[in-house]
Amino acid sequence: MLQVPATVHPAGPGGEDAWAVHLIDLSRSGVAFASDRPLRDAQPIRVSFRLPGMDALYDADGSVVYCMAFAGTGRYRVGVRFAPLGQPIREAIMDFVTEPMARREPAHSTGAA
């Protein structure tokens, strides 16, 4: 499971402070993270994170699409759909999510010994 430290910055009414979370899923269209705080559906949010092996800090705006309690833990799995992302963050996410696939593909044998 993905475990990337991140910071969540809720927007809108309430003016909550940012808090630390761990990303557990990441794609070009959104992110899921584990949180000790529930969020409401459609809540605007910013997620800030550094991808492993990369120095850049990325900020991605989006809105909450679900918030489900992890049974008996007092924690929540929160899904966020990204608003349109700029090219640098889109490319970084694509590189990050496709690189593990490239490493898992079997090497092609040439038949040479």
Shape: globular
Kindly report the name of the CATH homologous superfamily: predicted glycosyltransferase like domains
In whole angstroms, the N-to-C terminal distance is 38 Å
* Helical amount: 10-25%
Polypeptide structure, described:
This protein is α+β, with helices and mostly antiparallel strands and 113 residues long. The chain has a single domain (4-104), classed as Thrombin, subunit H (Beta Barrel). It has one helix at 87-104; strands at 4-10, 19-26, 30-35, 44-49, 58-70, 75-82. Strands 1-2-3-6-5-4 form a six-stranded antiparallel barrel. Strand 1 and strand 2 (19-26) form a beta hairpin.
Write the layout of secondary structure elements.
Layout: E1 4-10, E2 19-26, E3 30-35, E4 44-49, E5 58-70, E6 75-82, H1 87-104
Antiparallel strand pairs: 1-2, 1-4, 2-3, 3-6, 4-5, 5-6
